Structures are given as structure tokens and as C-alpha cells.
## 1
Amino acid sequence: MSLSVIILAAGLGKRMRSDKPKVLHEVLGRPMLQHVIDAVKPLKPSKVVVVIGNGADAVKKQINEKGISFVLQKKLLGTGDAVLTARNHIRSGAILVINGDGPLITTKTLKGFLTKHRRHKNIVSFLSFLNDSLAGYGRVFRDKSGKVTGIVEDKHASPEERAKFNELNSGIYIIEKAALRYLSEIKKNSSSGEYYLTDIVDLAASAGKKVNTYLCPQEETRGVNSRRELFEISNIMRDKIISKWLDKGVTFIDPATTVIHSSVSIGKDTIIYPNTYLEGSTSIGRNCIIYPGSRICDSSLGDNVIVKDSTLIESSLIGKGASIGPFAHLRPESDIGRNAKVGNFVEIKKSRLEEGVKASHLSYLGDAEIGKDVNIGAGTITCNYDGKNKFKTKIEAGVFIGSDSQLVAPVTIGKGAYVAAGATITKNVPSGALAISRNRQKNLDSWVSNNKSKSRKKGK
Ligand code: UD1
Ligand code: CA
């Protein structure tokens, strides 16, 4: 049985008051449209057609995925017209038509919907939900016997009708290809000038065809038309994700101020403090502690890692038992070994720190390879950039770098070597050597009192 999908994403999104197409607005780091595509793909449709119009190029560019085709709706004449635009791209069978601005829908709900549609052999089905207070949705009208007779937009319904019908249209339909012929019978709505897809319900039902609606969990059917709804929907998704991790044994000190993207995974017994953001394809091991105010994106943390307050970690790997922060910045391609320690005000970029390395205070380590158990003194800087090119610093196992040293790359510090505090290292240091590069200290005895007596003589 073949299934095609049409996603409606051409609308202007006027109520968002934005220069960006509505479906590209992000809910927890992913465009709304991408959430809808993610929910649809596991149904293994033979075809996914996205109807674009407003900001078409931007949508195409951002939703760059295999197996998706785009069709352009030249004039935004309504949802009915949008489906007509896509019609020629669909061969036969059932068509799931879904609004691109409803990011909460799940694959599970869609699967159940499809099963019921097929079992009941409907020609048109749609998902609805009961709500007395939400404005702006289409209302499902029924006759005395309870049969669905049509969908009327909120703004076109009378107060009596609004009071009577509190079942709302989710904007998710399954339409048999054969029913698409009703699309050309849809008349332009006289007050809005649009062709409403929802009229297909009335047309098919009036022709005596089987039309059915199925109730769907309300939080999945919410659409985004305004910034307020974007925020409400983001909150619903955030709560849902956090509930899932609570059930799997993760502690959150304050879920209300914690943001976890849907693609993140977290091991059990991990504790997450407030104001933590775990984004993108991040995975956190078991028994970790993430203290307040950190953002971790596209990174992988092993078990028993501690991230101390106000730390930013981007596209990096962190081995078991390591401790990062407070106030550390791991830039992309930082690879931190087991039990390593990266402390206050340390910035790392594209560097590998082997097991047990300590860089506890105030350092910049870029394009570096740092061997096992190396100690990086406070204020150490790898000078990796000469204004044109980047160069590597290699620090072999067991090295001790004294505080406030600059390592001018390219340079290698041999195994077990020592670099004395305050050094500017421009030449390789052989293994086991001590490198000093500072002037010997000179003390001028009684300089202070001598100076004072001189000034007195001059009468100052
Ligand atoms: C629509 C439904 C309403 C339902 C609600 C659910 C209609 C007439 N109304 O209302 O019954 O309760 O969704 O969220 O369908 N779009 C196009 N081309 C167009 C117009 C819209 O592709 O010419 C797309 C939009 O980008 C959007 C979707 O269709 O993703 C829905 O359009 P929108 O204007 O948001 O419809 P609603 O007023 O929310
Ligand atoms: Ca909408």
C-alpha cells in the first residue's frame, strides 16, 4: 500500500512578524518543518513533497535532505491550492497531508492514524482534538447523528457555532488520491479570498463518501502562528523531552530552566543543574554532573564527567572522569582524555589532551597534541598563529610547563621535559631537558632607602 506525503509550508506566516519563513523558525534548535519531516520519514513514504512559496530559496537551502522534493506554489491562494500544486507529483494511494507549522506531531500518532484510516476504508480522514479555549483553528461541524459535515474556520464561525462545536482541526489529513478531484471543486472563500483544503471534508461527505476524524493527543496537534505559540510549543516539547529523561533516571534540579534538544542522549544518574543547554547531537554519559549555566553542543561526554559552572563545549569529545570548567571554553575538535582536568578560564581548540593532563587555569591551547599526565601551568599559551598560518604544538608525555609560558609553534617539547615559568619557547626542547628563557634576576640592595635619601638631598 503506497503512501505519499505532502507538507504544506508555503504560507507567509504573517502573524510571526518575521523576515524569515515561518516553517524555518526553530523549536529547540530545529526548524519546525524539519520536526515535521522527522516525524513523517519513519512511515517510509514513497514520496515526500514539500510545498514552498514564501522564502522558498531559504527553505530549500536549509532543509537539504535526500528523498524530499519541493514544489513551488506561485501565489499563496490557501491550503487547498497548495495541495493542488503538489497533486501532479503524487501517483496513487493514500496521501498524508500535513501542515509544516505543527512540529509536535509524533510518528507514533501518525502510524496509528494511518492504520485507522486504512482499516475504516475512508476516503478522507483527519486528526482533531477537543478544546474550549484555543482560537484560530478550524472547527469540526457534525450533524445531529454525529456525522462529520465539514470544517469551518474559527473566524468564519458564529458565536453560537463556536459554543456548540469544540472539536478542532489539527491540520493533518489522509486523503486517498481518488478524492483529490474534490480539490478542483473547492470555491474561493469570499471573505479571505483563499481556497481552503478543509472544504474537501464537506465536499466528500456531501458526495456520500466515507469521511472520519480521529482524536489525537492535544499537545501534538498545536500549530505555530505567532511568536507566543512558538514559545508555548517549545515549552511543550521541552517538558516532554525532560520527562522522558526523568523516567530514564536523570536528575534535573530545575527543569523549567533546562533545555535539552530531542537528539540528545543522557546516561542514568547524571545530575543536571539549572540553566543547562544540551544541544544538537550531544551525548552525556552516566553519572555525570553538569553544574549551572553550561551549554554543550554536538559533543560527547563519557561517564563520570564533571562540567563546572558556566562552561561552553562545542563539537568536542570528553573522556571518562574528566573535569571541565568553571568558565572553560572547548571549541570544536577538542578531544579531552580520561581524568583530564581543564579548569578556570581555559580555552581549547582543535587539540588532543591525553589521559590525566591538567590545564587548571587561564590558558589557550590551540592545534596542540598534549601527552599523558602533562601539567600545563597557569597562563600557558600556545602561539599557534603567525597572522597567516596555523602551526602545531606537540607536548610529549610527562612534561611540566611552568606558569606564564608561551610556546611558539611549530614546536615540540620532548618527553618528561620541564619548561621554567615565564618562558618563551621558540625552539624544540629535548626530552628530559629544562628550558629556561628569561633574564637572571638581579637584586639591588637597599635601592629603596638610597633612592629616598637622594630625593631628600635634592630638596624634593
Ligand atoms: C489551518 C486550517 C485549520 C486548522 C489549522 C491547524 C485551513 C483553511 N485551515 O489553519 O482548519 O485548524 O491549520 O493548525 O487549512 N500554506 C501553504 N499555502 C498557502 C497557505 C498556507 O502552503 O497558500 C501552509 C502554511 O505554510 C502552513 C499550513 O499551510 O504550514 C497552514 O496554513 P495556516 O495559514 O497556518 O493555516 P491556519 O490558519 O493555521
Ligand atoms: Ca497554522
## 2
Amino acid sequence: MDSRFSGREFRAETGRVLIGIPAYAHACDALLGRDSAAIPNTYINALAQVGASPLIIPVIADQNLLSHLIDLVDGLMLIGGPDVDPVHYGEAAHPGLRQMTPSRDHMELRLTTWALQVKMPILAICRGIQVLNVAAGGRLWQDIASQVPNVRKHDQHPDYREDHLAHPIQIAPGSRLADICRQTRVNVNSLHHQAISQIGQGLVVVARADDGIIEAVESSSEQWVLGVQWHPEWLVDRSEAMLALFSAFRDACQSRRAVVGLPGAQHG
Ligand code: MN
């Protein structure tokens, strides 16, 4: 790439979309236990496979900086992680609640609210579907196993590998998800102990496990918003349907850019 070529021109030339990924907040051993921002490479690799570029959004409180970063990207990908603080959906902590990261909750809820307002495409994975639902005013089961009767084991970690196909899901015919997967029953991995209990505004349930647990939601409007409770990024090498989730997300980001123009284009 010509060094005189700006990033914006490169994206216009290649059609590559830029995906914002809010990071984990954690203390990293390699950095002497200091707080760090991190993204597991499985997510980055899945985007790379469909020709999309990741932009890591660090865990920051500065609203101006966050607003600058979300303005740069074509889409928002919310990834896995610890529990969302139930204060964000008006509940007291249940004994089954696990680790939380309040600074990341605030950042992700802010970014998700903005992305919903400007109709930016959102792909929300595992914790991501929960953040999406809470940002839309919905609620969560804080611990499925102790709050919901007769459920299967959805928390397969650490007994099984991350790509273990734990259970089937039933996808609503006619949904965006069914269209992408080209089938209405698929087997998925399952690495969650929470799930949606009450759906947020503007979202619809499009997949459930056979015990009734909500496994996927979409936007009820034209906006491309898809939340999945499983981890498709671990399955892209073995499943065309899972890779198709990422390419459909990329396509939605490209389409939106064609409508709203490249970020900052008004100054260029
Ligand atoms: Mn599950």
C-alpha cells in the first residue's frame, strides 16, 4: 500500500469495512498485573476471514474519545466476557451472579446506545447479546441454572472445548438469521450462564434452545442488528453457516457506508 494513501482512501479503494470491538477490561499478567484492554484473537480471525478490519476500542470513560472512535467505524461487534451489572436493568444481585466489570459495562452500553441511534450494524456475541438487550431496556437471567427450572447445562466451560457443539437451536423461519444460516436448526456451542429473560424494545427473539432459553435476537426494524448467545467465532472453520454470520455483518456494514458515506468524508 502506498504510504501516501490515507486509511480512508484505502477503505474506499478496497471496500474493507472497519469494525469497532469494545475490549475486555482485565489485569494482564504479561503487563505486571496492570489493567489492560484485550480482544481474543478468535474474533479478530473471524473478521479477517471475511475481509473486515478490527479496531480495538479500549475500555475508556472519556465520552469524547469514545464518540470519536465510534464515528470512525462502519459496524460494532460486541463480544463475550463477564456478567453485566444487574443495576443496569434494575435488579439486585442474585447469589448466582459472577464477576463483573463496571467500567466495561458503561463503555459498551454507551456505544451500543449510540450505534442503535445511528442505525449502525451490530453483531453481538454471548455477553454481547446481553449488553445489547440491556441497552434496549431488557433484562437478564443472572444465573440460568439457579433461576430457570428444567434447563439444560448451557455453561460448558471448562468441561468442554470452546468449539464443542453443546445443543441445537431452533431458528424462526423467515428471520434474518434463518436467511443467513440457510437452515432453521443448527448445533451451537454454549459458554454462558446468563441469558435474556425479558426482551428489550425494538428486538425480536429469532432462536431458542429446546429448553426455551433465548439464543438469538434481531432488530424488528430494517437496521441490521443480530445478537447470538453462542460463540460463532469458534466455529467459522467448520461451519459455513457460522462464517456466513460474519460475511452478512460485513455486507451490512458495506451497505450502510454506501448510504452514509465514509466516516469524516465531509471533511475530506
Ligand atoms: Mn446455550
